TrEMBL record:
Residues 26-146 form the ASCH domain. It comes from the Bacteria. Gene3D superfamilies: Sulfate adenylyltransferase. It comes from Lactobacillus ultunensis DSM 16047. Pfam families: ASCH. CDD domains: ASCH_Ef3133_like. This is ASCH domain protein.
Amino acid sequence: MNSINKFWNDFCQKHQLSPAALESADAYGANSHDADVLSDLINRGIKTATTSIYTSQEDLPTVGAYSIVLNGKNEPVCVIRTKTVEIMPFKKVSPEHAYLEGEGDRSYETWRDIHEKFFTWECREELGKEFTENTEVVCETFIKVE
């Protein structure tokens, strides 16, 4: 049994959950360094939100679902549970949501700069489209469960 399965099975036993309650096991960010930094922020309860490019209805997180947060070595760090999911144009993301992302100085300006650069790269290199102010994004909030 790999470390992610063991981590999840132990969590399910402790919280009396079905193993089917797991929605995903993911690392955040574009590389292992980002994954280490962001998983640490989530584990410490500082990062309680994330934003991603909206690609399809099937990829949306489910409110109430559990996910395992992985570090840069794809090792489990903690479990989160999705609280809210909203789709909106990038230009409509609020300063409050940016603050909940917990990165940098937590200002809207810093959040916007980091995400605009990342989404421009992601759209061009991975999705084959152009990023604009009107590109739809998924804003998710979550709580660290364990």
